[in-house]
Amino acid sequence: MPEQRVSQEQVLDAALAIVRERGESALSARSVADRAGCSVQPIYSLFGDMQGLVEALYEHARTWVAGYNREHEGDGRNPFEANGLAHLRLAQTETNLFRFLYLSPHLQPDSFEDLFASVALDGVEECIAQMGDLDLDAARDLYLDMIIYTHGLAAMLANGAGFDVDKMRDRLNAASLAFLAKAR
Question: With contact defined as beta carbons under 8 Å apart, do 47 and 29 qualify?
Answer without folding.
Answer: no
